[in-house]
Design goal:
Layout (H helix, E strand, L loop, with lengths): L26 E4 L8 E4 L3 H4 L5 E5 L2 E2 L3 E5 L5 E9 L6 E7 L9 E4 L3 E10 L2 E8 L2 H4 L26 E3 L11 H5 L3 E6 L22 E4 L2 H12 L4 E4 L1 H13 L3 E4 L14 E3 L3
Length: 283
């Protein structure tokens, strides 16, 4: 697949800078299949578009305060975006560092609250190994908004899903931001966790999509969720994934035969679907 086939014009004026309230008033474009015009609905209508046998699967990861605004030893500004906790103790990370070319290995960056971060080896593609020497990133950091959102949030919780659980991701599974407790209460639901990392921020820079290198992200599909997926499909219901992160978690579990692990799955045309029947995704 040529990467150019994915290009489309999205005027900046069409990118909402403030989230709609309530969440489920977000507009929903319903694909009704070949030859039929799409229907214009809102997310609050989602339960009416599902059958009683359908299963709605969400990603319950929570976004960390992963963006650290720091100062270089020269006094210049720097930024570290924490991506992957290498040891699970919140000290050694794979991160994006800006300005990456200017920050030399061994340099220590400092910030509010006594935060000190040592920048290590260049891992390629803008990634660096960093170590938190002092301070608490969760206290000093910010929730990282996507680069196309320019207005700060009045409430950080608006960039979390209402069902978010464990702080682990560097970005939100954004399709789920529009769901409310009232919508979910009218659906059969299950959850997975896929920790959103580098590939959310990295554009495709190759001519063919299949050549795009994917970094691994950790996923976990609870046994109860897997059982619900299998039971739904056996009963003729549809598995509806909320976001591409849910798609990757479920399809990875099916392909790998493992409910927990790390995945570099890249889904391209011709993929043989094992779990997911429908997708709710963001533009």
């Amino acid at each position: 697949v040529e990467a150019a086939e994915l290009d489309y014009d999205l005027p900046e004026a069409a990118v909402a800078q403030r989230p709609v309230e309530p969440r489920d008033r977000a507009r929903l474009l319903l694909d009704r299949g070949p030859g039929a015009a799409p229907a214009h609905r809102v997310v609050a209508d989602l339960p009416d578009l599902l059958d009683p046998a359908d299963l709605l699967v969400v990603n319950d990861t929570r976004v960390r305060r992963a963006r650290l605004r720091l100062r270089r030893e020269t006094g210049g500004a720097a930024e570290v975006l924490l991506l992957d906790d290498l040891d699970g103790d919140g000290r050694r990370w794979e991160a994006l560092v800006r300005p990456s070319r200017k920050v030399r290995p061994g340099e220590t960056l400092t910030g509010e609250g006594g935060l000190a971060v040592a920048v290590g080896d260049d891992l390629g593609e803008g990634r660096r190994r960093v170590e938190v020497l002092a301070g608490d990133p969760d206290a000093a950091g910010e929730v990282p908004l996507p680069p196309y959102i320019h207005e700060p949030l009045a409430d950080d919780e608006r960039y979390q899903t209402v069902y978010s659980r464990r702080p682990a991701s560097a970005a939100a599974p954004t399709a789920g931001l529009h769901l409310t407790d009232a919508v979910l209460a009218r659906c059969r639901t299950a959850s997975v966790e896929l920790v959103v990392g580098l590939d959310t921020f990295r554009p495709i820079a190759v001519e063919r999509v299949e050549e795009h290198p994917m970094h691994t992200e950790s996923y976990e599909v609870p046994q109860a969720t897997w059982d619900a997926v299998e039971a739904t499909r056996a009963a003729g219901g549809r598995v509806v994934a909320v976001g591409t992160t849910v798609v990757r978690a479920l399809e990875s579990a099916a392909a790998r035969g493992e409910l927990t692990g790390r995945t570099d799955l890249l889904i391209t045309p011709g993929h043989r679907w094992a779990c997911v029947d429908r997708l709710l995704t963001n533009f």
